[in-house]
Amino acid sequence: MAINRKVYTLDEFTIQQLRNFPHATGELSDLLRDIGLAAKRVNVEVNKAGLADILGEAGMMNVQGEEVKKLDLFANNQFTGVLQHGISCAGIASEEWDDYVAFDDAVSRQSKYICLFDPLDGSANIDVNVSIGTIFSVYHRTTPKGSVVTLEDFIQPGIRQVAAGYIVYGSSTILVYATRRGVNGFTLDPSIGEFCLSHTDIKCPVQGKIYSVNHGNFFLFEERVRTYIHQCQAKIAAEGGPYTQRYIGSMVSDVHRNLLKGGIFMYPATTNKPQGKLRLQYECNPFAFIVEVAGGMATDGYKRILDIVPASLHQRSPLFIGSRQMMEEWENCRTDL
Ligand code: AHM
Ligand code: MG
């Protein structure tokens, strides 16, 4: 017999969380609702990408010198729009913009949060129907309310995040967000157009089974990384079974899978990209926050991601992230033994 239980929508859940904080203003709930709304709009476009003549290059280069796809622009506009017109966000920074954007109006100057986001991560995969995602992080502004936000609001270390999350536009669409109180996932029910609580209090398994890395870069990695990869491969040869390697090339999907199933995701420095590929503020910090709240770890190979003080908005960092025990094995990996 089917058991009916109350299904919480994203809005209901965030409002319910407010009850734990009698002095909360509800601004974070508003902001998450705005992000959920933009995600639903992006989801519609992602789902009909093959039909809507929206595939292909928009013919522009973004600030990273990469070609922008049309859906990147659409997603960027959606997230910018909802945050600009909401009441909770004083300014944004996006992987697609050169600079941060301060919302200079009477309501936004009083808002207490700023938001950074990568509107469509893994967009190189759009043309081939591979899952892509949005990544976001939320900080308290450091400048006083009433003023216009400045660069200092956007280059805070990741440890100061108030919330962070991501959306995977995949076989189903899921929004996962973390606050210090926990990590929860909401799957989009297309029949009612609502994100519904589906993954409560997500914990990253302590012992992972999966290692995720772009093997094509193997000879560009430092020796320690190559040694660790060999250790993982030796484990697969010795133990077989559940251990394996998986790499989608879409970070949101790769880290989401490892968060649920256990594993380590690595985007190390390479000889041609000594700072790695991923952006500290838009990709590494939000995932580091989420995975740490879920019980895992995240480093740049040597130090904790969340402790890095950014020097600029678009700075890159190597990333090693995932299950605690695998991360400890990586930390203990030496080439001189
Ligand atoms: P993007 O922000 O330009 O989409 O790049 C980030 C993506 C990640 O999602 C993914 O993990 C990585 O780039 C894949 O890079 P590579 O093809 O070098 O392995
Ligand atoms: Mg990205």
Structure description:
- This protein is of the alpha+beta class and 337 residues long.
- It folds into two domains: 10-199, Fructose-1,6-Bisphosphatase, subunit A, domain 1 (Fructose-1,6-Bisphosphatase, Chain A, domain 1, 2-Layer Sandwich), CATH 3.30.540; 210-331, D-Maltodextrin-Binding Protein, domain 2.
- The chain is 31% helix and 24% strand.
- It has helices spanning 10-18, 27-47, 70-85, 106-109, 151-154, 223-239, 251-261, 280-293, 324-331; strands spanning 57-61, 67-69, 89-94, 101-102, 113-121, 132-140, 161-169, 173-179, 182-189, 194-199, 210-212, 244-245, 263-267, 297-299, 319-322.
- The strands form three sheets. It has an eight-stranded mixed β-sheet with strand order 4-3-5-6-7-8-9-10, sandwiched between helices. A five-stranded mixed β-sheet has the order 12-11-13-15-14, with helices on both faces.
- A hairpin with a 4-residue loop joins strand 9 (182-189) and strand 10.
- It is globular.
- Bound molecules: 2,5-anhydro-1,6-di-O-phosphono-D-mannitol and magnesium ion.
- The site of magnesium ion (MG) has 4 residues, from strand 5.
- 2,5-anhydro-1,6-di-O-phosphono-D-mannitol binds at residues 66, 118, 121-124, 214, 249-251, 254, 267, 277.
User: What is the fourth-level CATH superfamily of the largest domain?
Assistant: Fructose-1,6-Bisphosphatase, subunit A, domain 1
Summed over residues and divided by their number, the pLDDT gives a mean of 92
Query: What number of structural domains do the residues give?
Result: 2
**From the 3D coordinates, which CATH architecture of the largest domain would you assign?**
2-Layer Sandwich
Secondary structure: helix percent: 25-40%
